[in-house]
């Protein structure tokens, strides 16, 4: 392999320095919040911060020889992306001739938005180098904010709902990006997991599971309802994951891959409607359906659709986040129409139809923007200037990290 692919000394440090200098320069012109009205967000923000940095960092640790990169690159992207997200959102917001205010709420929205990048990273895990990941982070944050602006200004979608499209956008943006990367050789040993890597990945899943109620309630108006409904949905999806894993395996044993993905499905599915669900049994049913669609989707997608579409979804973000997000978005439309119809006693069907049209439009716009921009981003990331990794070097830490001795671990 050519030597220029093995060193990023002349590119990566200077790119990081440039981005950090831009964020630092922006801070001279941003106005700090003068009131502490949003400081009550800090406990929830800290939970979400743990979830994104620690939880997802270990959640992505599924490859036997990519552990350093999975956790290290995730941390780098989060700490850099949060700053860039604040800059991007406040800069574009300032175009409306309003002062930029950096407060606890803007920081909370930045961390929530970074979840889209973390999910997309799981799709290209092991194939993209640090330069490509940083560029993907910047592009995705910009287009995710644009998608949110379209939903909020043109379709009048609430800010909470526009942010909860983060799972949908992240999953399909990542799938579109990874479809533009060359396929790994079949049977590549480095693309497999080990019991040790599965154990660490499950540890990350448990942390994400524990902190998910804080994620769904961080920016919600009805925080108590959001926490209650998310906890119930997560509990049911976890129970259903163990049940369905034993039922679908040949020997009746549990599969770690099923548990790893399906226990989170309830939190994703209920995220759109968690603050507005009035009956706990609805959240529990959504958690059950989310787990079902995740496990069944993993069988169908990996055996049928992924080979046909030439998708290599390294961490299974499609059936862990994408499909449950689609289910949750559809369920949210149904629940809102039914709730509004009961209040109006089904007298004004035109307003109910308009409400459904707006929500479905926001859902379709988010997926379309994610797929189109993801395909374009994938093509850009594979230009020669960005030192794309050769397929023989996929899923290998030794391309980026120093090892005191040659390790055969994950």
Which short descriptors sum up this protein?
globular, mainly alpha, Ammonium transporter fold, 410 residues, disordered N terminus, 67% helix, 14 helices
Describe the protein's topology.
Blueprint (H helix, E strand, L loop, with lengths): L11 H16 L3 E2 L9 H18 L7 H28 L6 E2 L1 H20 L6 H24 L5 H6 L1 H13 L16 H23 L5 H26 L7 H7 L2 H5 L10 H30 L7 H27 L5 H33 L29
Strand order of the largest sheet: 1-2
CATH class term? Mainly Alpha
Summarize the helix and strand pattern as letters: HEHHEHHHHHHHHHHH
CATH superfamily: Ammonium transporter AmtB like domains
Instruction: Please compute the radius of gyration using only Cα atoms.
Output: 21 Å
Low-pLDDT residue spans: 1-6
Share of β-strand residues: under 5%
Structural class by sheet pairing and helices: mainly alpha
CATH architecture assignment name: Orthogonal Bundle
Give the overall form: globular
Strand segment tally? 2
């Amino acid at each position: 392999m050519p030597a220029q692919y093995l060193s990023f000394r002349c590119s990566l440090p200077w790119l990081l320095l440039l981005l950090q200098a831009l964020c630092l320069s922006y801070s001279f012109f941003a106005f700090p919040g003068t009131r502490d009205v949003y400081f009550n967000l800090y406990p929830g923000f800290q939970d979400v911060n743990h979830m994104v940095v620690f939880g997802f960092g270990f959640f992505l640790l599924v490859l036997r020889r990519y552990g350093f990169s999975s956790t290290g690159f995730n941390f780098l992207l989060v700490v850099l992306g949060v700053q860039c997200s604040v800059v991007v959102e406040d800069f574009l917001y300032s175009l409306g001739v309003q002062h930029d205010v950096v407060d606890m709420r803007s920081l909370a929205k930045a961390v929530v938005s970074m979840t889209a990048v973390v999910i997309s990273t799981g799709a290209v895990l092991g194939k993209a180098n640090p330069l490509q990941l940083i560029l993907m982070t910047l592009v995705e944050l910009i287009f995710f904010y644009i998608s949110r602006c379209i939903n909020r200004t043109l379709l009048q979608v609430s800010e909470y709902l526009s942010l909860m499209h983060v799972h949908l956008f992240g999953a399909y943006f990542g799938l579109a990006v990874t479809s533009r990367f060359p396929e790994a050789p079949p049977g590549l040993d480095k693309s497999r997991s080990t019991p040790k890597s599965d154990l660490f990945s499950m540890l990350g899943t448990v942390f994400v599971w524990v902190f998910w109620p804080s994620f769904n309630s961080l920016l919600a108006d009805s925080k108590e309802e959001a926490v209650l409904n998310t906890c119930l949905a997560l509990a049911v999806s976890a129970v259903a994951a163990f049940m369905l894993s034993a039922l679908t395996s040949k020997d009746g044993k549990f599969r770690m891959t099923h548990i790893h993905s399906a226990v989170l499905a309830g939190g994703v599915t209920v995220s759109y409607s968690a603050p507005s669900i009035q009956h706990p049994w609805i959240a529990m049913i959504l958690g059950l359906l989310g787990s079902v669609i995740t496990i069944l989707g993993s069988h169908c997608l990996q055996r049928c659709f992924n080979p046909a579409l030439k998708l290599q979804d390294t961490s299974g973000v499609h059936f862990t986040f994408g499909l449950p997000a689609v289910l949750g978005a559809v369920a949210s439309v149904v629940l809102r129409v039914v709730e509004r119809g009961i209040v109006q006693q089904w007298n004004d069907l035109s307003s109910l139809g308009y409400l459904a049209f707006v929500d479905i439009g926001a859902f379709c716009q988010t997926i379309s923007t994610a797929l189109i921009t993801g395909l374009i981003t994938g093509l850009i990331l594979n230009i020669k200037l960005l030192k794309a990794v050769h397929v023989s070097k996929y899923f290998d830490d030794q391309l980026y990290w120093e090892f005191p001795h040659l390790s055969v671990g994950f």
